[in-house]
Amino acid sequence: MPPPKTPSVKLFGGDKLSPLKEAPHDMRDEILRLLNELMMEMKKRGYVPDTSFVMHDLEEHKKEQQLYMHSERLAVASGLLKSVPGTVIRVVKNLRVCGDCHTVLKLISDITHRQIVVRDANRFHHFEGGICS
Questions:
Q1: Domain hosting residue 44, numbered range
Q2: pLDDT one-digit tens code per residue, 81-115
Q3: Between 109 and which of 12, 66, 104, 127 could a Cys-Cys bridge form, CB atoms 3.0 to 4.6 Å apart?
Q4: DSSP state of 31
């Protein structure tokens, strides 16, 4: 069986970031703290996790936890922490972005006033100001 797929993350300047699942990750706590702050702000703006994108038969709160740890969210949070304001965050992902993560990335681009570009298995997504072009 092939190893699980994880995205690689590159900032506009070309720096490559290591995935959170690599242990020990030097920024794990900071990444999770930032994601938690962003999640609280998104929920204030009306975001409700779409757990239909979790394929496992789990309790609802565990499905939300599964979504919370999707690799593109972790990658974007890592990019936000490691870059200077105004830098474009670029994520390269070898799988498709799920619909819930698409919604989340639109919100993160609006909250942080940052441009986020994600290349997934099918297309480029350009998130800016809460919109995907």
A1: 8-132
A2: 989 999 999 998 888 999 999 999 999 999 999 99
A3: 127
A4: H
